[in-house]
Design a protein that fits this description.
It is built from 5 helices and 24 strands. It has 409 residues and is an alpha+beta fold. Among the domains are: 107 residues, conserved putative lor/sdh protein from methanococcus maripaludis s2 fold, CATH 2.40.420.20; 98 residues, Efflux pump adaptor protein, beta barrel domain (Elongation Factor Tu (Ef-tu), domain 3); 76 residues, Orthogonal Bundle (Helix Hairpins), CATH 1.10.287. Strands 1, 3, 18, 19, 20, 21, 22 and 24 form an 8-stranded mixed sheet that branches. The longest helix has 36 residues. The relative contact order is 0.18.
C-alpha cells in the first residue's frame, strides 16, 4: 500500500496539469513584399496561332484523255491568266474536229436539196400538178435534213471543245507548283492531277478566336472610328515581324459547336512574294484600348478552382487584454490607456477576388476587384491566408514597375 500511494499521487498531479487550458499557438508574422497598384497606359499584343492561305487556289485536271506532249512553264514561278501550261496529244481531237466540219457541210447540202424539193412540190401542189403524198414526203425530208444540220453543228461544237481541252491554260494570275506529270505520261479524265495554281499577292492569314471575342472582332471589321494602322501584324516562323500590316477580310459564317471557336481571315499584301501558303505564324492584335489599366506582377495572383485572387495589405488595430499588458509591461511599443487595455497596430493580408485580363510577359492586367493605391502582396503569397499578419521589415520593397513582357512599341 505504501508503494502504491506515491504512484496514485503522481498520476493525479499529471492529470491536473494536463487539464490546464493551453493558449492556442499564435500565427507567426509573415515577411512579404508589397506592390502599390497604379493604373497606367498599357500597349501590348494578343497573340493567336495562324496559318497563311491562298485567297484563290485551283487544281488542274485534264478534261480529255491522252499523252502529255508539251509543258510550257517553269515550276514554282508566276504565271499569267491565259498562259499556256500543258498540251495533250491533240491529233485524235483534231481529226475529230475536221470530220465534224465535213459532216456539217454534208448535212447542210442535204438540207438545201431537201428544202428545194419541198419548195418545188409546194408550187406544183398549188397548181394541182402532183399528188399530195409526194408533197408531204418532201416536207418531212426537208425537216429531217434541217435536224441533221443541227445535230452536225452540235457534234462540231463538241469536237471543237475537246480540241480546246487538249491545251490547258492558267485560269488566273498566280504561282504554279511542281508538275505532277512529265512529258509522255498518259493522263485520264477525273483521275490525273496535273498541277496546282494559287494566288500569292495578296495572301490570307487564318486564325481562330473564342466565341466570346466575336463581338469585338465584328466591331473591328466594321469600325465606327479609325483604328491604328498597326492593328494586325504577325510573326514569321523565325520570330521576325512581317513588315506589312493586314486587315480583317472575312469572319466565318458559324461557330464550331465542339470547340466554341470561329475562324477569322486577315489579308496582307505580299509584293515581294516572300510568303507562301501553309506557313505557320503568330497573328498579333495590337491593343487599341487607350484607357489606363491596372498592371500587376503575375506572381501576386493566386488561382483557386478557376477563380483568381490577390492579397491586399490593410492596417488594422487590435485590442489587447489586461493580461497581455502585464506580459508586455516592459515593451516600449505597448501603449496603455485608462481602461487597462492597449491598441496595437497590425498589417494584415486580406484575400480579394479579381477579374484578370491579358497576360503581358510576367505581368497581368486586372480588370476589377482592386483599385489604385491598394498594396498587394507579391512575394510570400504561398505562406499566408486570409487575415494573416504580415510585415515588410525583412523584405526588400517590390519594384513599382511591371516586370516587362511583350508590349507594343
Amino acid at each position: 500500500m505504501g508503494k502504491i500511494l506515491p504512484i496514485i499521487i503522481c498520476l493525479c498531479v499529471a492529470g491536473f496539469f494536463s487539464c490546464i487550458h493551453k493558449p492556442p499557438p499564435v500565427d507567426p508574422v509573415v515577411p512579404v513584399n508589397l506592390y502599390t497598384v497604379k493604373s497606367q497606359k498599357v500597349y501590348y499584343y494578343e497573340n493567336f496561332p495562324a496559318t497563311t492561305q491562298a485567297l484563290s487556289q485551283v487544281d488542274l485536271h485534264p478534261q480529255v484523255q491522252g499523252y502529255v506532249t508539251g509543258i510550257f512553264f517553269t515550276e514554282g514561278t508566276r504565271v499569267r491568266k491565259g498562259q499556256k501550261l500543258y498540251e495533250i496529244d491533240k491529233s485524235i481531237y483534231q481529226d475529230a474536229y475536221e470530220q465534224a466540219v465535213s459532216n456539217l457541210k454534208v448535212a447542210q447540202g442535204n438540207y438545201q436539196q431537201a428544202k428545194q424539193d419541198a419548195d418545188r412540190y409546194t408550187y406544183l401542189n398549188n397548181h394541182n400538178a402532183i399528188a399530195k403524198q409526194i408533197l408531204d414526203h418532201a416536207v418531212i425530208a426537208s425537216q429531217n435534213a434541217e435536224n441533221q444540220v443541227k445535230a452536225a453543228e452540235d457534234a462540231l461544237r463538241t469536237a471543237k471543245t475537246n480540241l480546246s481541252f487538249a491545251t490547258i491554260y492558267a485560269p488566273f494570275d498566280g504561282t504554279i507548283g511542281f508538275s505532277q506529270v512529265k512529258l509522255g505520261n498518259l493522263v485520264v479524265v477525273g483521275t490525273t492531277l496535273l498541277n496546282t495554281i494559287s494566288t500569292i499577292d495578296p495572301i490570307a492569314v487564318d486564325f481562330l478566336i473564342n466565341e466570346k471575342q466575336l463581338p469585338h472582332y465584328e466591331e473591328l471589321q466594321h469600325p465606327k472610328k479609325p483604328h491604328p494602322d498597326s492593328l494586325f501584324t504577325f510573326l514569321m516562323p523565325d520570330n521576325s515581324v512581317y513588315p506589312y500590316t493586314g486587315e480583317i477580310s472575312v469572319i466565318d459564317r458559324a461557330v464550331d459547336p465542339q470547340t466554341g471557336s470561329i475562324r477569322v481571315r486577315l489579308v496582307f499584301p505580299n509584293p515581294k512574294l516572300t510568303l507562301k501558303a501553309g506557313i505557320s505564324c503568330v497573328v498579333r492584335e495590337h491593343n487599341s484600348d487607350t484607357n489606363p489599366q491596372m498592371l500587376i506582377p503575375g506572381k501576386a495572383i493566386v488561382e483557386q478552382m478557376g477563380e483568381f485572387f490577390v492579397f491586399v495589405a490593410r492596417d488594422t488595430l487590435l485590442i489587447a487584454s489586461a493580461d497581455s499588458i502585464k506580459k508586455n509591461d516592459g515593451d516600449p511599443g505597448v501603449k496603455k490607456d485608462a481602461d487597462s487595455s492597449q491598441q496595437k497596430s497590425s498589417l494584415r493580408a486580406f484575400q480579394k477576388k479579381v477579374k484578370v485580363g491579358q497576360v503581358i510577359g510576367a505581368d497581368q492586367i486586372i480588370k476589377t476587384g482592386i483599385q489604385d493605391g491598394d498594396r498587394i502582396v507579391v512575394d510570400g503569397v504561398q505562406a499566408i491566408h486570409d487575415g494573416s499578419e504580415i510585415t515588410t521589415a525583412t523584405k526588400k520593397p517590390a519594384s513599382q514597375k511591371g516586370s516587362g513582357g511583350q508590349r507594343a512599341q
